[in-house]
Structures are given as structure tokens and as C-alpha cells.
Amino acid sequence: MADYVIAIDQGTTSSRAIVFDKSGSIVSTGQLEHEQIFPKAGWVEHNPNQIWNNTREVIGQALSKANITRHAIAAIGITNQRETAVVWDKTTGQPVYNAIVWQDTRTQDIVNRLAADGGVERFKKTVGLPLATYFSGTKIVWILENVEGAREKAEAGDLLFGTTDSWVIWNLTGGVNGGVHVTDVTNASRTLFMDLETLQWDDEILKAFGVPKSMLPEIKSSSEIYGHASDDSLLRETPIAGILGDQQAATFGQAAFQQGEAKNTYGTGNFIIFNTGEEIVHSENGLLTTLGYKLGDAKPHYALEGSIAVTGSLVQWLRDNLGMFSSAPEVEALAKTVEDNGGAYFVPAFSGLFAPYWRPDARGALVGLTRYVNKGHIARAALESTAFQTAEVIDAVNADSGVPLTELKVDGGMTANDTLMQFQADILGVPVIRPVVAETTALGAAYAAGLAVGFWSDLDDLAKNWQEDKRWEPNMDSAERDRLYRNWKKAVTKTFDWVDDDVQ
Fold it and tell me: Which residues bind ATP (predicted)?
């Protein structure tokens, strides 16, 4: 009997397979990191073959640790880093170039070219997104224009594009031997190509970008059977039945199913999603309009999203580039050696600034330095930057929705950091709440897959699984909160206008 659902979480820094039981509890996990490739300043790449090989291996790890076989698995759910673009040859199965990661900024010239006629909001009413290097559409254009022979192969119908969900599913269902080429509405809504109302690729926008429609996957709902694992897989014949982009998956895993509910994920970057129900809400305050989820034939749920590029990856940068500590959790101990930030503010605009500013010309800045500042202050300033950036996006959500958030549900690796979570509650002035299962991204993908095959019956069934683990109440006085936040906003302005023609 099938007692479990397995989720494949293909993230920015690692690929994981997690087995969940009916209560939404974790049974076992397999995880492998993949290489972060930085060929030039602003360029970020992954090796798609390494990602696929790691995915196969972590499936084996998870099954082995749980001491189960495929027969115990009811369905496979997929969640993924959403805007990272893979282009591959459908006859050989080989990528024509490395995956270009969502953090990559090389396509700014393409953005500028497309924005010359109508500005960065040229397609926003249709797709909910501004023109920006963040989204996968411009990355496809870069590959077609810069990889020898790619344009010709694409025009001949020989190349396929996908975000990493599509790449994993195509390989998992057989690859060159009948692999299924699909994505779901949440991932499709991050390309710059999908019409929010029709949930289909927009022919006029594809023409403006010069991207052949034949490259694109078929858009499906977030919860249905797309295909089955191929015979050479440890999961052979198991249905692949759920796809959600990572942030939408985390929202689904947090059981934020209804209009007005929201969550914030603390990962490589931070991502706040606010469920707007069946209504498409166009932001006036720098947020993205995106798909929340679509279950089978039911109506889609939309969302507002605030995307922050650098949060957890700033801690990695302090570890790897500056050698300030040897493991990421040590940042908290270092930050606790001081009582405050010592006047230092760290704005990590390594990939420009995302929401609510959308400033590709910004670059990172550490400001307010005096001889008093030490590495403890810098560690604290790094953690505080995550909370400050979140506060700015929450302000935008409150302004767009007209209904201020009264609490914030949180998930992701950084929520293990008590110092950060307490400061987050303090700077927001509302409680911050972490669920028992913090791996909500993988859980959301498992939920979507399980719903499609009847493993779970409905959303009420899933909502019953959600349990509070820890709550942080604000305890900072309002004058201090206002002072810190005012200085943060001042620090942000120091990052603007850095990039020009001869500075990258």
C-alpha cells in the first residue's frame, strides 16, 4: 500500500528528495549540493546534468533512509527554483549551455532593448511582471543570441526550454525516449511569456522576444498527473502529479490557501507571497503579480509577491568569500557578541535590488562604518538586512492589499536563527510564527501531488496538518524601531546609480 508521497525540491543551492507521510511529517530526506558557477561578475550558472544526476541520487538516498521502495509512494511532487533557465537539445538530451540562474544579471542589455519601446512595464498588464534580468524570458534570448548554432536549432524545432521543474520531469519521464515536456502555471508565470488571464503563452510577446513557441513546455495546472517515472528510475511507474514553483509551494505548504493569507520564506533570497484569491491584483508598490496555484480544473488563485534577491546567500558570502566563520549557523553566535549593529548597515544589492525598488543599477554597500565597528557588528548588520528588506516588502503588501498583516508565517532555513526572527518581529511590530514542519516548500509540492491522486482529500485535510512550532512577539519600542528603519532606508539610497556603461 502507498503510505507516502515524495517531493523533489530542486533548489538554488541543492537538490533534495523528501518523503512525507499522511500527517505531512518528514519520514526521510536525501540532499546534495551542486556547484555555483560564477564565470564573470554578475553571472551565475548551474550545470543541468549535475542537477539531474544529483536528483536521481537523492531519490535513492530518501528511499533508502526510509527503508521503502517505489511501491510505498503514491505520487511524486516537484518544486523548483523558478526563473532559472535550461535550454537543451531534444534529440541528444544535452543542454546547449549551463542553466542561467535567477540571480544572474547578464541580460540587462536585452532588458534595455525590450524596454526601449514602452518601458520596463511594457508587458506588465498581461504577465504581471516588469522587464528584469530576474525572469527566465531574457535568459532564453541570451542563449539564442550567444550560443553558436542555438538560434538555428531553435527555429528548426530541435531545442526545448524549461525551468528546472521541466528539466527534471523531462528526464524523469524518459528524456529522449518520450520525456514529457510540461510546466505548471506558477513557473510559467515567471517567464514574462504567460498571459495571467488565459494561462497560455502570449504569441505577441514571444514575437517581441524572438523566442520560438516550439521551445516552450505545455502549461498545466499545479495538481494533476503529468506522466509517470520511466522504467530506468527507482520510482518507475509512479505518477508525477504536482508542480509548484518553490515560493508558491512554500505558501501551499503553509496552508495559506485563502485570500488574505501570506507567508515569507527565508532561503537564498526572501520571498513573500500574499494570496489574492481568484482576483488578479496589479501592484502599485513594486510587487509582482503571479499565480498562487491552480488545482486541476478549478479556478486559479493569484498572488502578490515581494522578491528579495539576497538574504541567506549574504551569510554564505560572509562564510565563503570573507571567511568570517566556517558554517552558516555560526553567524548567529558572532552577531550575539555585540548588542546592536554599531551603526553599520549592510545592503546586499549583489544582483541589483528587487522588490520594491527594481533597481538593476544598485550594488552592495556596507555603510555607517566607524573604527568602533567589528566583525560582530557586520554579522549582525547582515542578519538585520534580511529583516529590513522584508519590512519594506511587507509595507508594499499592506499598501496594495489595504489590509495590514497582523502576523507573519515564516519558513526556510534562516528561521532557525532566533536572533533574526526576534529582530524580524521587532522591526515589523507583529508576531512571527514558524510551523512544526519548516520544510514547507517540499511539503507544498507533496500536497499538490497527493491531492491529484486522492492521497489527501481536500484543502481542509491539509489545513489540519499545520501546527505552530514557535512564535516571536515584538518587544522593541516604536521610537527605536523607527530610528533603525529610517537609517536602513537611508543606507539603501547609497546603493543606487552604481552601475553604468563602464562599471558592472
Answer: 12-14, 268, 312, 316, 413
Q: Residue 486 annotated as binding?
A: no
Distance CA 79, CA 440 (A): 11
Dist CA 202 CA 129 (whole Å): 14
352 belongs to an annotated ligand binding site: no
16 is in an annotated binding site: yes
Residue 171 labeled ligand binder? no
- Residues 116-164 have pLDDT tens digits of 999 999 999 999 999 999 999 999 999 999 999 999 999 999 999 999 9
Q: What is the pTM of this model?
A: 0.88
Question: Helix or strand or coil: residue 301?
Answer: strand
Which pLDDT belongs to residue 16? 96
Task: Say if residue 14 carries a ligand binding annotation.
Answer: yes
Say which DSSP state 71 is in. Answer: G
Burial 263-300 (b: 16+ CB within 10 A, else e): bbbbbbbbbbbbbbbeebbebebbbbbbbbbbbeeeeb
Omega before 356 within 30 of 0, i.e. cis: yes
- In DSSP notation, 205-266 reads HHHHHT--GGGSPEEE-SEEEEEE--TTSTTTT-EEEEEEEHHHHHHHHTT--STT-EEEEE
Residue 458 annotated as binding? Answer: no
**Would the annotation count 83 as a binding residue?**
yes
How far apart, in whole angstroms, are the C-alpha atoms of residue 108 and residue 139?
Answer: 10
Q: Give CA–CA dist 452/404, Å, rounded.
A: 34
Q: Are strands 408-411 and 432-435 parallel, antiparallel or unpaired?
A: parallel
Give the helix ranges, DSSP H, for 375-476: 375-401, 418-428, 440-452, 459-463
Residue 35 has pLDDT above 90, yes or no: yes
106 is in an annotated binding site: no
Cell of 501: 556603461
**Is 80 annotated as contributing to ligand binding?**
no
